Task: structure prediction
Amino acid sequence: MHNFWWMSCREYCVCKKIMTKDNIIELVESLVEEHDERDPFALCECLDIFVMMYDFTGEIQGYCFTYEDVQSVVINNNLNRFMKKYICAHELGHLLMHDYFAKHIDVTVYDMTAKPEYEANLFAAELLITDESVFDLLETYPNYYDVAKELSVSIELLNLKVQLLRHKGHKLNPVL
Result:
């Protein structure tokens, strides 16, 4: 549970502003524990975050915004179901960790050059991929590409999860 027991997960994140890997791991653990849920769409519903699909014609994959205290996520309806789930988790991460974004549009979701993007990607990796699933699959499959395929995630997202597992002290080889 987060250090500020009198605050909700959202209040905790807004007051923190600077998100470390430990903060992100703690946030996801608190969120999952509080709502007994890992699905980003269900979590958005629990948190009263409005999610809508839109048929974008350009490169936009999704975005989030807050208007009059209503938080929303918009996802490109042309994406496959796995990418929609990832985009929802990524945008949820932005809304919980980066409340100072009035509106944020993602064209390239695996942008690791901007700190907020990296943090939202770490949040999505921690939320969507359990530690146990990675360890279980590594016993069966010889490489990370097979593990990513089995988990229905990109190798980039699995790479972020492995970074978090290494941060937690697990002895794993880097993915990329």
